[in-house]
Amino acid sequence: MIKLRLSPVLTKILQSSVVAGLCFLYSACAVLGDKTVSVTEAQIQQKLNERLAIPFSLMKIFDVNLSNALVKFDQNTGRMHTTFDTQLSSQLFNESQTGKLGISGKLRFDAPTNSVVLDSPEIESFHLDGLDSKQAEVMKALAKQVGGQLLDGLTLYTVKPEDLKSGATLYQPKDMLVTDQGLKITLTPQQ
């Protein structure tokens, strides 16, 4: 057996090199692991307010303006609950009606667009100030019939390109979790 005797300085350099190499390997492994993107209620609210800022027409009879989205996530059901301030104009009314619209929906990740979209939305509540009970019932039934169809597939968040790439490593969505504080999207390195 051959014994090498290294000088103390050379021994220190060798030890430092080994430690540095191990640190480099450890950091490289960490880069290759899953990473999580957090999406807050405030981010979704902002996106909804931007997307729905332009009034839209329902059946060429009603002009609808939704604003001031208030988003809450329900971890137990995996649904998003949202309340909007609502303004409704129509030739059927003497003046614009204001009120509240409450919707809920499941969330799903659309892989081709790297987006979180609203899935199976339901109109939970619809109230317009100043309508008599018969008008309110008709409007609520109409909102339930048409509203869910209009909002189905609405893009709520798109994963940023910089989140899908780190150095030479490309990531793809693996999982999405609804929490009471927001969404957690897990990204995994592509194989």
Draw up the topology in text:
Blueprint: H1 8-31, E1 35-40, H2 41-51, E2 56-58, E3 62-74, E4 79-90, E5 97-110, E6 115-128, H3 133-151, E7 155-158, E8 165-166, E9 169-178, E10 182-189
Antiparallel strand pairs: 1-10, 2-3, 3-4, 4-5, 5-6, 6-7, 8-9, 9-10
Q: What is the number of helical segments per DSSP (H or I, 4+ residues)?
A: 3
* CATH topology tier name of one domain: Bactericidal permeability-increasing protein, domain 1
How would you sum up the global shape?
rod-shaped
Question: Strand percentage, roughly?
Answer: over 45%
Radius of gyration from CA coordinates: 27 Å
- Taking the alpha carbons of the first and last residues, their distance comes to 45 Å
- What is the CATH-assigned architecture of one domain? Super Roll
User: What's the level 1 CATH class of one domain?
Assistant: Alpha Beta
Query: What summary fits the major beta sheet?
Result: 6 strands, antiparallel
What's the arrangement of strands in the largest beta sheet?
Answer: 2-3-4-5-6-7
Q: What's the CATH H-level superfamily name of one domain?
A: Uncharacterised protein PF07273 family, DUF1439
Commentary on this structure:
With 191 residues, the protein is α+β, with helices and mostly antiparallel strands. It has a domain of 121 residues: Uncharacterised protein PF07273 family, DUF1439 (Bactericidal permeability-increasing protein, domain 1), CATH 3.15.10.40. Helices cover 28% and strands 45% of the residues. The chain is built from three helices and ten strands, in the order αβαβββββαββββ.
